[in-house]
Design goal:
alpha/beta, 28 helices, six-stranded mixed β-sheet, single chain, about 900 residues
């Protein structure tokens, strides 16, 4: 906001300007009567973003101040629009009664709203978290803390590199990130923030200091020392946590009673999923439409509560590495799966429970209303029955959940005693607290009830005394209670009546008795409403004493909800319990893609087997045509592995899952023009991430490597990648159109060839969707093009060109690559023909082979190279096809 001469401002505008100076990075909603108004630059921005009229107001300066405003009752709608665009808002309210104020009404900012600190349910997705995070850096260590202020969840971790921090940031996916205003964030973090629509908010440097952060944590959590949380051993994480709490206090401007614990964790406790894997596996949203439908979350989310839905999303983002913890979840799912009646009863109870976590936050932030208390009461009233039903379960699978559910019967009884069953929506008129709850309130309400009787008695008595049959007692806000008599009967009014108002057809009078009753009735009503407000505050404070118990119960209910959802999807879709262990084996019998089979449920899904280990079956090279199902197969193996490690049953007849520490995926690619990166550069960046970070415990999914450059460059890179991963990394599935790579089976230890089966019918193909051993000898690209509707002349010409190019099949030059591989491994000058694992480097031929002329020599050489004793039937057929093709070409047939 530009500098102005404050001395010339009107008193009201001077007050506005003083407040605005403290909130320069915010749009200030300044309360004036029934409107929030914005001035100067705020008005210009708000009018544009909210599409409301921009006007002006006299502010004491020569030029009118730009002005726009919104009705206070519609503030939530406008706030959501601004916050969704990353704009921060400060709410400035009147904090004294205008009727008693002397001069300008006192105003203060009562709340600050940023993307990560929204608390209004109307502005949030109820089945997803809304995190605000804090980053702190010291040398090469990073602290990352994050909190959902609507639920009180608060977590923190300490990391050893920026890459680890970014992976964790992507997992959390916060709406907002704060950092010290004394540092400059790296370009990598800024890029992630832009891609993920994360609002970046610099905050006061000093709150990131070790001592201030420690004191803040101890004060808010009411603990003697951070040592009780274990944060003293994680100094950078502690600083991030303290700074985040300070930021939340600054924005919320209320005591943070619902933040009762900080959960610190090691990243190594969970499977790491980088941004590429999260995107490619479509865990919570699809790649293209960014929708939930079509994601793994969409399939698994059969939860009955908003709390359970958020817990499920959290588990999906954090697959476990601890085998025992996985088995505990599986044990619970098995119990619930086998008992349909139990599952049905528990689901019925859960559907009656509202969002306890966010009801608690409304309690803390002071925006809870009587209807929310009824929702809380109804939810808590279910807990005794729910817990009793859980007590029927034998064994330990659900015992921890049973122990953590607190029935909270005294809270239920207290709300039942205090709040009427059907409270009004608005508080200003009262009527939401039970009469029996407070003796003074009872007296006021009895006075109001008796007053109505008094008025009726006065009316009947005066009619009889005066003989005026049309006399009546009425009321309006201007004159209060009155006696109304028609014009024709007005002369009969007693002298004790005092004329108050003359109407066209009647006269209105008052009496001392009526005035006394009026004071009693109106005083009782006003005092009763004020008393209800005081009592309601007391009720909130009393219920707030049980916040930690409600939160613990809510967490247990959410966990139960997720486990029931696991059991339900397993029951509906035929999922089986996988055997999870620390072995290096990944074995799947008749595995299916959990999402594809639900989207195309009218079509039978073709299941496939998988056997990966760190020995003979470490690396699958998968060939076959486009659209045949290679990508589906790759993703289903990754998703089945992930599902097993979140404790869910899996879409397979049988599975043994050796826990993997990371899943890497490189699937397709597209230009990133904003970063000046081509498709091939994006592909290589993703590949580099895999090669630099994968371990022997990782699962790697590669769907094409080297397709964004020339054939020989791409083949060379793909060939070398196979050798490198087979020697240095974990279990790998590699789908490729480079059929030449099938030569590596038997040459590189652990490499096996698989293909997608297809059936040829004349010039057409039928996709069988089945993975079988062996390599494909062609990609059927022309047939796929025909299926896609490419014009027939193009198809026919492509066939002619293909026939010519096949005579120059690069497979006939593989011997030089094989020799190169063996030379690099053994140092021998001649090929030994023995299988040797690993390679430091492999080079494709420096120049492409010359076109092969069709001659008897070609046929002789082809036939002499055949190793009939090791050929598979399909390889023999393919070779026979090539011989016939060469012969026919020679004859011109």
């Amino acid at each position: 906001m530009k500098q102005i001469d404050e001395s010339k401002l009107t008193p009201m505008m001077k007050q506005y300007y003083e407040i605005k100076k403290e909130y320069m990075d915010y749009i200030l909603f300044y309360r004036l009567g029934d409107f929030y108004e914005m001035f100067f630059d705020d008005a210009v921005i708000a009018s544009r973003e909210l599409e409301i009229t921009l006007t002006g107001r006299n502010c004491g300066l020569e030029e009118r101040a730009p002005l726009c405003g919104i009705p206070h009752h519609a503030v939530d709608t406008y706030l959501k629009k601004l916050v969704d665009k990353g704009i921060k808002v400060a709410i400035c309210e009147q904090v004294e009664d205008p009727a008693t104020a002397k001069g300008i009404v006192k105003r203060e900012v009562i709340r600050v709203i940023t993307p990560g600190t929204v608390v209004d349910p109307e502005m949030l997705e109820d089945r997803a978290f809304n995190f605000v995070a804090s980053i702190c850096q010291e040398a090469n260590r990073y602290g990352l803390a994050y909190c959902d202020i609507t639920t009180g969840m608060f977590k923190v971790t300490q990391l050893d590199s920026e890459n680890q921090m970014i992976d964790e940031l992507l997992k959390v996916s916060p709406s907002e990130v704060i950092y010290s205003d004394a540092i400059e964030l790296s370009s990598a973090v800024k890029e992630i923030a832009e891609q993920q629509d994360i609002s970046l908010s610099p905050f006061l440097e000093h709150v990131f200091g070790e001592e201030p952060a420690q004191k803040t944590i101890e004060r808010v959590l009411n603990i003697f020392s951070v040592e009780s949380l274990g944060l003293n051993e994680w100094p950078v994480a502690m600083r991030a946590s303290g700074a985040l709490i300070s930021y939340i206090e600054e924005t919320a401007k209320v005591p943070l009673n619902h933040i009762t614990h900080i959960d610190h964790y090691l990243q190594s406790k969970y499977m790491v999923l980088d941004k590429f894997t999260r995107r490619n596996l479509e865990l919570t949203q699809t790649m293209r439409q960014k929708e939930k439908r079509g994601s793994l979350l969409w399939v698994l989310d059969k939860t009955s509560t908003a709390m359970g839905a958020r817990k499920l999303r959290s588990w999906l983002e954090e697959p476990l590495l601890d085998v025992e913890m996985i088995k505990k979840r599986q044990d619970a799912v098995e119990v619930l799966l086998e008992d349909l009646l139990l599952r049905s009863d528990l689901t019925m109870f859960l559907k009656q429970i509202y969002d306890l976590e966010r009801l608690v936050s409304k309690l803390v932030y002071g925006n809870i209303n009587p209807r929310d208390f009824i929702a809380l009461k109804q939810s808590l009233a279910v807990l005794p029955e729910l817990k009793m039903r859980l007590s029927d379960i034998s064994g330990e699978s659900l015992s921890a959940i049973f122990d953590d559910i607190d029935t909270l019967t005294e809270v239920t009884d207290y709300i039942e005693k205090a709040i009427v069953d059907e409270p009004p929506f608005l508080l200003k008129d009262g009527g939401y607290i039970k009469t029996s709850y407070n003796e003074d309130l009872k007296a006021y309400r009895e006075a109001i009830t008796n007053g109505k009787t008094w008025l009726l008695n006065i009316e009947n008595r005066e009619k009889e005394t005066t003989g005026i049959k049309n006399l009546k007692v009425g009321f309006n806000k201007v004159f209060g209670y009155y006696i109304e008599i028609s014009k024709g009967s007005a002369k009969l009014a007693p002298e004790t009546y005092v004329r108050k108002q003359t109407l066209a057809n009647a006269e209105r009078f008052i009496t001392p008795e009526l005035k006394e009753i009026e004071e009693t009735l109106l005083g009782a009503e006003e005092k009763g409403i004020r008393l209800e407000s005081v009592l309601f505050t007391q009720i909130k404070e009393n219920v707030m004493q049980s916040i930690d118990r409600i939160q613990k119960t809510a967490s247990a209910v959410a966990e139960l909800d997720v486990l029931i959802a696991y059991a339900e999807v397993s029951y509906r879709y035929g999922y089986k319990r996988p055997k999870v262990s620390q072995s290096q084996t990944l074995s799947i019998k008749n595995g299916r893609h959990p999402v594809i089979e639900r989207i195309f449920k009218e079509t039978a899904f073709v299941p496939n087997d998988t056997l990966l280990d760190q020995r003979d079956n470490q690396f699958y090279i998968i060939t076959g045509p486009n659209m045949a199902g290679k990508s589906t197969y790759l993703r289903q193996v990754a998703l089945i592995t992930l599902m097993a490690q979140i404790g869910c049953f899996v879409p397979a007849d049988k599975a043994e899952i050796g826990v993997v520490d990371r899943i890497f995926t490189r699937v397709g690619a597209s230009d990133d023009l904003s970063q000046g990166q081509s498709t091939f550069m994006v592909e290589m960046n993703e590949l580099a991430n895999i090669l630099n970070n994968a371990t022997h415990q990782s699962l790697i999914i590669l769907d094409e490597i080297g397709r964004g450059t020339s054939t020989y460059d791409g083949l060379s890179i793909a060939w070398s990648v196979v050798e490198y991963i087979a020697k240095n990394s974990g279990k790998t599935l590699f789908a490729t159109h480079y059929h030449e790579l099938t030569e590596l089976e038997g040459l590189v230890e652990g490499v096996k060839n698989y293909r997608i089966a297809v059936k040829e019918v004349h010039d057409d193909i039928i996709f069988l969707r089945k993975i079988e051993k062996g390599g494909a000898n062609q990609s059927y690209g022309i047939q796929v093009a025909k299926l896609a509707g490419v014009p027939q002349p193009v198809i026919e010409r492509a066939k002619d060109i293909l026939s010519t190019l096949e005579a120059n099949d690069i497979n006939r030059n593989m011997s030089s690559l094989n020799a190169s591989y063996v030379d690099n491994e053994t140092g021998d000058k001649e090929t030994t023909g023995k299988s040797t694992k690993g390679s430091q480097s492999t080079h494709a031929p420096e120049t492409p082979p010359k076109p092969m002329l069709i001659s008897d020599d070609n046929l002789d050489r082809l036939i002499s190279d055949i190793k009939i004793d090791v050929m598979t039937p399909i390889e023999a057929m393919n070779t026979l096809y090539e011989i016939v093709t060469l012969y026919r070409n020679k004859k011109g047939e």
